[in-house]
Amino acid sequence: MGIQQFRLPDVGEGLVEAEIVSWKVKPGDTVKLNDTIVEIETAKSLVELPVPFAGVVKDLLVPEGETVDVGTPIISVETDSPAEALADDMVPTVPEPAEETGGRTAVLVGYGPKTTEAKRRARKSAGPAPVAAPAPAPVPVPAPEPVVAKSNEQAGSVHVLAKPPVRKLAKDLGIDLAAVTASGPGGIITRADVESHVAAPAEPAYEAAPVVSAQGDTRVPVKGVQKVMAQAMVASAFTAPHVTEWITVDVSATMELVERLKADKAFRDLRVSPLLIVAKAVTLAARRTPIINAAWDEQAQEIVYKGAVNLGIAAATPRGLIVPNIKGADSLTLPDLCRALNDLVATAREGKTQPADQAGGSFTITNVGVFGVDAGTPIINPGEAAILAFGAVRKQPWVVDDEIVPRSITTLSLSFDHRLIDGEKGSIFLSDVASILEDPARALMF
Prior knowledge:
The protein is α+β, with helices and mostly antiparallel strands. The chain is built from eight helices and 21 strands.
């Protein structure tokens, strides 16, 4: 018998600290290899951590709500194996999610030799965490095995029944197949099972309790997603010279198209909204103005033209603003783009958006219209060259053939980085998006 300590890992994004949000186990519980034991909040998302060994939980070393550095012991488990020192060459690294894990990375990255004890402290605003000198620690970590579980067996078993397309769907959505209830014959997980899991009501998102001072002022710690968002917006606003242009558009034809698509069998069980047509218009207009989908590389002094439109959709969550993106949105059919948008929104609402889903974006849409806002001057997402704000669609008087008639009107506003996008290119792109929304048949010209 021996006591093994599980140290907080870097979940593959180069992070230096995380907050313990909620423990899924308690002292005395029996855990199997790869059982989920804790939910942490990193600077980018909520992440569930599996335990890398089996045994009985001895102690929870860090309380909920505490922020600790990567490498800090967070739980001790009594196992059948004697405790051994963790050599540097035993440190497991899993840089990419494996296909068989259903899209969930075996988050055991970054076990350095650091043995810093957990302590209460204020989170640092910037800079890497201090690294202690290498020292042996009683934490032997076996090489991680694929996280799989047969849905009709007890949690912690090691086999998932699902066809490759279903596994790919789960991977793209960042869903752990072990958490999906199977309805297929013999316990097979189907596409419908995965989609139902996405649509299931989400648990309440975690929010830090505000600290109220004696004078009645309320102070809320800035951390996690909100902290990163604030830093990114400041960096973008004071690095990229922003230019914003507006255009007001008659989108009556788009609204009619949305209603027709809702009745189309290709969109059965999908939520069709005007944002879908805006997203498609952006991917088409980017073909004519590819600089919109580029980025400025300050260090190399180069303009990087992206090979695909990884379309980001700004999403407001209780934890802060996040911008997950749809990889290769320009290569998707309209039904597939609609499905991807639905999945993106559902995952964000559940608070389950993974860091990989937020990385690699090339263009962003922010739908301020859902809040009843007509327009704005959006700030460019760092690493991108432009962002489009889609305003509220309202019935307004409009001149058509010299007559005033009620039409569905919206305002689009485009902010772009003037280092690489000049006024002509920005105007052409914005005009192209508007023309497609005004007459969707013009999409055939792109």
